[in-house]
Write a structure and sequence with these properties.
- The protein is built from three helices and ten strands.
- 17% of the residues lie in helices and 43% in strands.
- The chain has 187 residues and is an alpha+beta fold.
């Protein structure tokens, strides 16, 4: 292969070096900044036989660090704290959150998570079959009466925490309008 001198394609070499220098200045020139954000808290791996009872937080505050460009490009939903509930057992439990529990885009690091501890209460789940009771809204017009009101299906299976199921005696429907002049319910 013949020797090609240094000056061969000199213009392209100069442009390449200039572009590389500009790119380096642009990246190196961005300041590293910190920003506080409120992000959603998601739960994963809840054991099938457990239910969360009482309130549980649905957001956490995080302090993130990155270049100003990277932080400005964060889209809604791109930062999410994920709490793994695989080790949950019945009763009140504490779970720790740290930067490793937060999904972040490339170039963004989590400095702090607040709260760093989440308290949650779990209870065994169960099921119960209860009757469906229709809820009637309003009164029929003069000369009309409400006849027999039934629901189909007449019973439903309700799933939930056993403490709630123990007090549940019926499932009430959304309100159904009572008769008016336009319905055929003679008195």
């Amino acid at each position: 292969m013949p020797y090609v001198g240094f000056r061969h394609h000199l213009g392209l070499k100069v442009v390449s070096i200039a572009l590389a220098a500009l790119l380096w200045v642009a990246v190196a020139g961005e300041q590293t900044v910190e920003r506080s954000l409120r992000i959603p808290l998601e739960f994963t791996n809840l054991p099938a036989q457990l239910e969360v009872v009482g309130g549980s937080p649905n957001v956490v505050d995080v302090r993130v660090r990155g270049s100003s460009g990277a932080l400005n490009r964060i889209a809604a939903g791109e930062l999410v704290a994920v709490l793994d509930l695989r080790s949950a057992r019945s009763g009140q439990r504490l779970f720790h959150l740290d930067g490793d529990d937060v999904r972040t885009p490339f170039g963004v690091d989590v400095v702090q998570v607040n709260p760093s501890t989440v308290s949650m209460t779990f209870e065994p789940s169960g099921s119960k079959v209860v009757p469906v009771v229709p809820s009637i809204e309003g009164e029929p017009s003069d000369g009309f009466v409400v006849g027999t009101v039934t629901a189909e299906p007449s019973t439903v299976e309700v799933l939930g925490p056993i403490s709630v199921l123990s007090t549940l005696t019926q499932a009430i429907t959304e309100p159904v309008a009572g008769c008016s002049d336009s319905c055929a319910c003679p008195g």
